[in-house]
Specification:
Radius of gyration: 17 Å
Order of helices and strands: EEEHHEEHHE
Helix content: 25-40%
Distance between the termini: 33 Å
Strand order of the largest sheet: 1-2-3
Number of strands: 6
Structural class: alpha+beta
Length: 144
């Protein structure tokens, strides 16, 4: 399996500095980052937390489609959002204090109980969920 990479170039201190994150593998773009926009209003800039949310939501959508496929099912649609929260860490600094997942799917012929099982399996086996296992992850999953 391939690896993926990104690069960040930073200048200045934490409060007054700024950086650019480049998605090297895909060449999909370069995005501005700064600590004031990370901890406050995004003002058109991304953050590590937003990038983690993007990774988590896309991974979980793909993984759920795979779980369904293993059951010979295909969703009409899967919508996943991830809200990653940055907060103060015990002992100083910051930490990702939680990730709230909202998952909605339209799957013909699947009961709410079956869907709950599929969604739980998808979340537990999602590679990004596994990588973020040290963080509290909650999920609200329902059929659309």
């Amino acid at each position: 399996m391939p690896s993926r990479d990104a690069t960040t170039h930073w200048t200045g201190g934490l409060q007054n500095g700024k950086g650019e994150v480049t998605l090297d593998s895909s060449n999909a773009g370069t995005f501005s980052v700064s600590f004031p926009t990370r901890a406050g209003n995004p003002d058109g800039q991304t953050s590590p937390e937003e990038l983690i949310a993007a990774a988590h939501s896309s991974c979980l959508a793909m993984n759920l489609s795979g779980v369904l496929e293993s059951q010979n099912l295909t969703a009409d649609s899967i919508d996943v959002s991830a809200e990653v929260t940055l907060g103060p860490a015990k002992g100083g600094g910051f930490e990702i204090s939680g990730i709230a997942i909202t998952l909605r799917a339209s799957i013909p012929g699947v009961s709410a109980e079956q869907f709950a099982e599929y969604a739980e399996t998808a979340e537990k086996t999602c590679p990004v969920s596994k990588a973020l296992a040290g963080t509290t992850i909650t999920m609200d999953a329902a059929l659309a």
